[in-house]
Amino acid sequence: MVQKKTILLIEDEEDIAALIKLQAEISGYRLQVEADGINGFKAVEREKPDLVILDIMLPGMNGLDVCRKIKTNAELKGTPVIIISAKNEEFDVVLGLELGADDYVAKPFSPKVLFSRVKAVLRREREVEKQSKTINFGDFFLEVDRYLLRKKEKYIPITLSEFGILKRLLSNRGRVLTRGQLLDDVQNDEAFIIDRNIDVHIASLRKKLGPQFLWIETVRGVGYRFLEAI
Question: Is 74 in contact with 42 (CB distance < 8 Å)?
């Protein structure tokens, strides 16, 4: 018998927690609920769950501090974290992703949508990252060791910054990456670089990928996601 994956939900709103708990049971997961940040983090330390679903606005310790403590703890940093957040907390969502959260879902949300994200994150965690010299997506191939992009046998001109951004997006398929995270992959000799430069690079990549530009999803107010499938 396959053991159920364990999810720790840290959420102080009882109605929301009840809906998530019901969907967890339907989806075949074992769910534990904590209603405040302090006890929530203690539960992460104690239970070592397979995944944490974390609200931002929590009593005791806010969700961003809980996320920070998880992702800076040597034993816990590999624990996937999904943030659930009200739409008017965009800044906090961006900060949460910068702290290492694996995804976020905006309130109000469908429990089914939330658990589709849970499934996707856990699937990524199961897949051991293999150091590959070529990353394939559709008809395209990113030759990592040669810094080249090709469609079948035809090579497509690509800048170092575009290469870095595309590689990061491909290595994190299905995960939202902020502009700040993608900025790490921009190589530019200019002294002043802002995160909006990322939008220019993304627009260029979409043009070069042609009709398949739909693979790169804009997550408004946050950043970008390379879709796992379209």
Answer: no
